[in-house]
C-alpha cells in the first residue's frame, strides 16, 4: 500500500502540494489527472524518493519512503533522461545492473515487439521511439509500483497505442500503476481508478466503472465537470 | 471495440461476449480467455475483466474452474436463451422509441412488412 | 558500487582510450628512435609523451568534472537517482573514477618514463639532462601529493556546490549559474576559515596545517554532499 498522509510541498516561494491525502491499493491502474502545475509530477517525485515532503509523509507498506523504496518503485519521468551516447541495448544493460527485478529477456522482447533495433543510439530516436524505449525499460522491471509521468506526451497515435498495449500486456496482477496524462479519453478504458489534482490539492478519488454505473458519465466528462474554469461555465 | 465511455465498460464487454455466443464465434463449453488476455484483447483494464466474468457467472452463462479458467456452460440451450434475451432487449428498445414517435404496434407491423418488400 | 564505478568509466571510455593510443604512439616513437639510433625521433617521442602526460591528465580531470556536473545537474540525474544507491556510493564512484583515471594516467606515464630511463641506461644526450637525484625525487613526490590534494579539494567543492543547489536551495530547474555562485561562495568561505585559523598556527606547522585542513575539508564536503543527497534531495 502506498499511503500519502497530509503531504504538503513548497519550493522557496511557491506551495505546490497542499495537504494531500490518499491511498493506493495493489492491483489497480490509476489515472492521475489534473491541469499543468496541479502537483501531479511533484507528488510522483515524492513517492519515488526524489524529493521530500515539506510536511506529512508518504509510506510504502508502512515504511516512510526512502532510497531503498526505489527498489520497489519504477519511476518514469516525462523527459528524456538517458545518457546521450547510449544505445537501446545500453539502456537495458544499465537497468539490468542496477535493478534486481529487471528482466533483460523481457526487455529484448518488448523492444522487438515495438519494431526497434537495439543498436540504435538514443540521440537518433524520434520522440515516439524514445517513449517506447522508456516504457520497455520500465515494464521490464517487476516491481509493485509503477509511476509513469505523462508517458504518452508528444507522441503519435500509433506509438501511444503501442505504449498502452505494452503496459497492459506486461502488467503484473498485484502491481499498482499510476499514469498521469492529459489524454483522458485515450486513457479511459485502461484505468479503473482516477485521482484528480487541482491547484496542489487532491480533490477527488473515484472508481471509474462506478462513476459510469451511478452517474452515467465518462471519465472525460467528469474531469470537465471538476476542472472547468469560469470561462467555459459562463 | 469502441466503447461508450458513459456506461460501464464491463457491461459492454459482457454484451459483446453474449453476441459471440449467439453468432457461434464462441461455443458452449469453450474456455474463455484469462482475465489478463481478455483485457489485452479488448484493450481494457484487467479489473474490468474480473467484473465481466463475475457478471457472466452471476447470470449463469459461465462458470470458473479454480486454477484452470472460465468456461461457457456446456449447454446448447444457452445459445437460444441468450438469443431471445438479446432480441427482447432490442425489441423493447425499438418499440419504446417507435411509440415515442407515435407509432402503434399495428403501425409498426405494417412498416416492417412494407420495408420487407423493398 | 562496482557497477556505478563501471558505468562512470564507461562514460570516460573513448577519451581514455584515445589518450592511451596517443601515448603508445609517442612511446613507440621513442623506442623506435632508440633502437634506430635516431636521436631526433627519440627526442620528439619523449617530448610528445611528456606533453601528453600533463595535458592528458588535466584534460581527463576536467572531462571527469564536466561529466560529473552533467550527470548531477540536468535531466540525466534521473539515471542515478532512480536507482537505489545512496549518495555515498554515487559520489564515491565519481570521485574514485576521477582519481583512478587521473592518478592512473600519471602513474603509467611516470613508470614508462622510468622504464625509458633504464632502457637507455643514461647513454643518450637527452636523458642525461633529465637525470633525477634523490632530492628532486622527494620534491617531485611532495609537489605531486600536494597537487593531488588540491585537485581533490577542487572536485569536492564543485560537488558540494552542485549538491547544495539541488538540495538546500531547492533549485528545481538546475540552474548552472546558481551552482557557480555557490561554488564561488564556498571557495571564499573556505579561504576565510583557512586564514582565520591559520593565524593561530606557528609558521613551522604550516605544512601540516595545510594538509590537515585540506583533508578535513575534502572529507567534510564529501560527507555533507552525500548526506544532503540522501535526505534533502529536491529534484
Explain the layout of strands and helices.
The complex is a heterotrimer of chains A (234), B (118) and C (235).
Chain A: E1 2-11, E2 14-24, E3 29-33, H1 40-47, E4 55-60, E5 63-64, E6 73-76, H2 88-98, H3 104-113, H4 127-139, E7 145-149, H5 157-170, E8 176-180, H6 184-187, E9 193-198, E10 201-207, H7 208-215, H8 219-227, H9 230-233
Parallel strand pairs in A: 3-8, 3-9, 6-7, 7-8
Antiparallel strand pairs in A: 1-2, 1-4, 4-5, 9-10
Chain B: H1 9-22, H2 35-42, H3 46-58, E1 62-65, E2 69-72, H4 77-101, H5 105-117
Antiparallel strand pairs in B: 1-2
Chain C: H1 2-35, H2 39-73, H3 77-81, H4 87-120, H5 125-128, H6 134-166, H7 176-198, H8 206-231
Order of helices and strands of chain C: HHHHHHHH
| CATH architecture identity of chain A | 3-Layer(aba) Sandwich
Uncertain stretches of 5 or more adjacent residues of chain A: none
Structural class of chain A: alpha/beta
Name the biggest interface.
A-C, 25 and 23 residues
Q: Spans of chain C with pLDDT under 50 lasting ≥5 residues?
A: none
Computed Rg of chain A: 18 Å
The best one-word shape of chain C is: globular
Q: Determine the N-to-C terminus distance of chain C.
A: 22 Å
The total of helices of chain A stands at 9
Strand content of chain C: under 5%
Total number of β-strand segments of chain C? 0
Q: What average pLDDT do the residues of chain C reach?
A: 81
Query: What proportion of the residues of chain A is helical, as a percent range?
Result: 25-40%
Helix content of chain C: over 70%
The topology string of helices and strands of chain A comes to EEEHEEEHHHEHEHEEHHH
Please give the order of strands in the largest beta sheet of chain A: 6-7-8-3-9-10
Biggest sheet features of chain A: 6 strands, mixed
Amino acid at each position: 500500500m502506498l499511503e500519502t498522509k497530509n503531504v504538503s510541498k513548497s519550493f522557496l516561494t511557491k506551495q505546490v502540494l497542499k495537504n494531500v491525502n490518499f491511498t493506493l491499493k495493489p492491483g489497480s491502474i490509476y489515472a492521475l489527472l489534473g491541469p499543468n502545475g496541479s502537483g501531479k509530477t511533484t507528488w510522483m517525485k515524492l513517492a519515488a524518493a526524489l524529493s521530500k515532503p515539506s510536511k506529512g509523509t508518504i509510506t510504502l507498506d508502512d515504511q516512510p519512503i526512502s532510497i531503498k523504496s526505489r527498489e520497489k518503485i519504477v519511476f518514469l519521468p516525462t523527459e528524456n533522461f538517458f545518457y546521450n551516447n547510449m544505445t537501446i541495448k545500453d539502456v537495458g544493460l544499465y537497468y539490468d545492473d542496477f535493478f534486481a527485478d529487471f528482466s533483460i529477456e523481457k526487455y529484448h522482447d518488448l523492444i522487438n515487439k515495438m519494431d526497434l533495433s537495439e543498436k540504435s543510439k538514443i540521440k537518433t530516436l524520434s520522440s515516439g521511439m524514445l517513449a517506447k524505449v522508456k516504457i520497455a525499460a520500465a515494464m521490464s522491471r517487476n516491481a509493485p509500483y509503477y509511476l509513469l509521468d505523462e508517458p504518452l506526451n508528444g507522441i503519435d497515435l500509433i506509438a501511444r497505442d503501442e505504449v498502452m498495449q505494452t503496459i497492459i500486456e506486461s502488467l503484473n496482477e498485484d502491481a499498482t500503476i499510476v499514469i498521469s496524462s492529459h489524454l483522458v479519453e485515450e486513457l479511459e478504458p485502461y484505468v479503473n481508478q482516477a485521482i484528480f489534482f487541482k491547484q496542489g490539492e487532491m480533490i477527488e478519488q473515484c472508481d471509474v466503472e462506478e462513476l459510469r454505473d451511478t452517474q452515467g458519465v465518462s471519465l472525460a466528462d467528469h474531469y470537465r465537470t471538476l476542472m472547468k474554469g469560469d470561462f467555459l461555465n459562463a | 471495440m469502441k466503447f461508450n465511455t458513459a456506461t460501464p465498460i464491463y457491461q459492454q464487454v459482457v454484451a459483446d461476449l453474449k453476441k459471440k455466443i449467439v453468432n457461434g464465434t464462441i461455443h458452449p463449453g469453450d474456455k474463455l480467455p484469462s482475465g489478463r488476455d481478455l483485457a489485452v484483447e479488448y484493450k481494457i483494464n484487467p479489473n474490468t475483466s474480473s467484473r465481466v466474468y463475475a457478471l457472466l457467472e452471476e447470470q449463469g452463462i459461465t462458470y470458473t474452474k479454480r486454477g484452470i479458467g472460465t468456461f461457457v456452460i456446456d449447454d446448447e440451450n444457452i445459445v437460444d436463451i441468450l438469443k431471445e434475451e438479446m432480441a427482447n432487449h432490442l425489441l423493447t428498445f425499438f418499440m419504446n422509441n417507435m411509440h415515442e414517435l407515435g407509432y402503434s404496434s399495428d403501425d409498426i407491423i405494417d412498416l416492417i412488412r412494407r420495408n420487407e418488400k423493398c | 558500487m562496482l557497477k556505478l564505478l563501471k558505468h562512470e568509466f564507461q562514460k570516460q571510455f573513448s577519451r581514455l582510450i584515445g589518450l592511451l593510443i596517443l601515448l603508445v604512439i609517442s612511446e613507440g616513437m621513442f623506442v623506435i628512435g632508440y633502437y634506430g639510433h635516431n636521436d631526433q625521433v627519440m627526442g620528439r617521442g619523449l617530448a610528445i609523451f611528456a606533453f601528453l602526460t600533463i595535458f592528458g591528465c588535466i584534460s581527463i580531470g576536467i572531462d571527469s568534472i564536466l561529466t560529473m556536473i552533467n550527470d548531477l545537474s540536468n535531466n540525466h540525474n534521473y539515471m542515478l537517482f532512480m536507482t537505489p544507491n545512496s549518495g555515498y556510493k554515487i559520489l564515491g564512484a565519481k570521485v574514485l573514477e576521477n582519481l583512478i583515471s587521473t592518478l592512473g594516467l600519471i602513474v603509467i606515464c611516470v613508470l614508462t618514463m622510468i622504464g625509458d630511463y633504464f632502457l637507455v641506461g643514461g647513454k643518450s644526450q637527452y636523458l642525461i639532462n633529465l637525470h633525477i637525484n634523490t632530492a628532486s625525487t622527494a620534491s617531485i613526490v611532495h609537489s605531486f601529493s600536494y597537487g593531488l590534494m588540491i585537485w581533490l579539494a577542487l572536485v569536492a567543492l564543485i560537488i558540494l556546490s552542485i549538491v547544495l543547489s539541488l538540495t538546500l536551495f531547492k533549485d528545481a530547474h538546475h540552474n548552472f549559474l546558481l551552482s557557480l555562485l555557490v561554488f564561488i561562495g564556498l571557495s571564499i568561505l573556505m579561504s576565510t576559515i583557512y586564514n582565520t585559523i591559520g593565524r593561530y598556527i606557528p609558521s613551522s606547522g604550516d605544512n601540516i596545517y595545510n594538509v590537515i585542513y585540506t583533508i578535513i575539508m575534502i572529507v567534510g564536503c564529501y560527507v555533507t554532499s552525500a548526506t544532503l543527497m540522501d535526505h534533502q534531495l529536491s529534484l
